Amino acid sequence: MEVNYENEGYDNDYQSKPKGSILTRKNNTLPIWGNERTMNLNTLILTNIQSSHYFKVNLYELKTYHEVIDEIYYKVQHLEPWEKGSRKTSGQTGMCGGVRGVGAGGIVSTAFCLLYKLFTLKLTRKQVTGLITHCDSPYIRALGFMYIRYTQPPGDLWDWYESFLDDEEEMDVRAGGGQTMSIGDILKSFLFKLEWFSTLFPRIPVPIQQQMEKKMSEKYPPVVEEAPRRNVPEKNFNSRERDDYRSRGDLSDQSRSRDRIDRRERSHRDYRDRDYDRKTSRANSRERSPYVSRRDDYKKSTSRSPKYGSSRRRDRDDYR
């Protein structure tokens, strides 16, 4: 059943709805998850927001929801928490590193000042829906999604973000420019990454994170890429030769490597058999030679005995 909105001005004054509408005063009230005073922001960022001249003077004069939206439209140009070049984190380590946003402060950005201003207005569900579906500026939508990420229960994040994961509207999120992202990519970063430039989002419990990862894999299943087929140029062959040529061209790389290994093994076996035949033929030729027996007799006659010396010397001594 669709939500029946009668008050298109998105004001805090809520009118009664006709029977059958699911929107009531109770569910139009948006719950705040976590710290209801700090909006779960980093302590250093919140301190700089509350002490900045822009928040205390300029934004203090804005009293309504529409005035804040107009200010976002004219003033927000990026989504970083600090202005470009205002915060020096070089040389800082440990808890003072730039990732955790706890080191030396800087000039807090207009975007985060307006984000906290929205928090002070205590937005309703209808007003947040108007933020994320606004058509004038992508930065209005982005601050609406960031408001949801900081203030809403982790179990409700998927329901808020799911229908916008394919949104291709782009914006430059880096201070000074140079990093363009679509709404869909920003939301995926909000869901699955804890860091956002030099600050951290509230942590999502592990079971809820696993459920969102499972839903993401079901929504975007992994694509298995097939191996590209080899393009074989056509040649002027007859039908049989063309079929043989195509069959050779369609062989996979694995079969080709296997053929190379088989050819190498066959050549190795051929060389081994050839050497064996050569040695065998040489031994057979020595046995058939008429000089082999004479050479053996000579070796026997000149062999030395360990006790009496050579056989000739032993025969000479016997004659004497």
TrEMBL record:
InterPro entries to which the protein is assigned, alphabetical: PRP38
Main location: nucleus
GO biological process: mRNA splicing, via spliceosome
Protein keywords: mRNA processing, mRNA splicing, Nucleus, Spliceosome
UniProt keyword annotation of Metal-binding present: no
Cellular localisation: Nucleus
Compositionally biased tracts (Basic and acidic residues): 226-300
GO cellular component: spliceosomal complex
Region annotated Disordered, chain positions: 217-320
Membrane-crossing segments per the record: none
Function: Required for pre-mRNA splicing.
Family, as annotated: Belongs to the PRP38 family.
Protein name: Pre-mRNA-splicing factor 38
